[in-house]
Structure to design on (146 residues):
């Protein structure tokens, strides 16, 4: 099992998070292809170097489009205070079922410069220029253009 560091992976034809699992034929339970969003909240997000980047705070849905718009990554802070939040394109994440975490191919220092927001000032993905900037930062094709 390996995680690719190729940032173009997930761009062409990939609409969701990739899944890495040691036993792909294990069909017991509801996951990992279909899962309740709240089971993923709080999951750690690590980078390819194994550094913890934060955790999944929320999963935002495009209700009209019927797709995941983005995952909200909580980074920094202490006990939820002072956290910076990031909108992470769903296609930029890899679900590692063995380690029960998500993998994001972004160095920790680069994440600190990513477009983010705080819990009191959420962005609007309806603002296409902001949303396009977010997807571009993570080298992902915006889901609404696929």
């Amino acid at each position: 099992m390996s995680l690719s560091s190729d940032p173009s992976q997930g761009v062409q034809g990939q609409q969701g998070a990739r899944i890495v699992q040691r036993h792909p034929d294990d069909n017991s339970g509801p996951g990992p292809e279909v899962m309740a969003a709240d089971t993923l909240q709080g999951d750690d997000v690590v980078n390819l170097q194994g550094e913890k980047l934060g955790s999944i705070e929320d999963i935002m849905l495009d209700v009209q489009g019927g797709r995941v718009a983005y995952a909200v990554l909580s980074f920094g802070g202490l006990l939820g205070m002072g956290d910076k939040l990031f909108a992470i394109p769903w296609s930029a994440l890899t679900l590692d079922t063995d380690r029960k975490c998500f993998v994001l191919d972004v160095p920790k220092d680069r994440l600190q410069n990513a477009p983010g927001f705080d819990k009191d000032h959420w962005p609007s993905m309806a603002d296409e220029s902001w949303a396009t900037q977010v997807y571009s930062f993570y080298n992902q094709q915006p889901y609404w253009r696929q």
Q: What stands out?
A: Residues 128-137 form the longest helix (10 residues). Helices lie at 108-111, 128-137. The chain is about 10% helix and 30% strand.
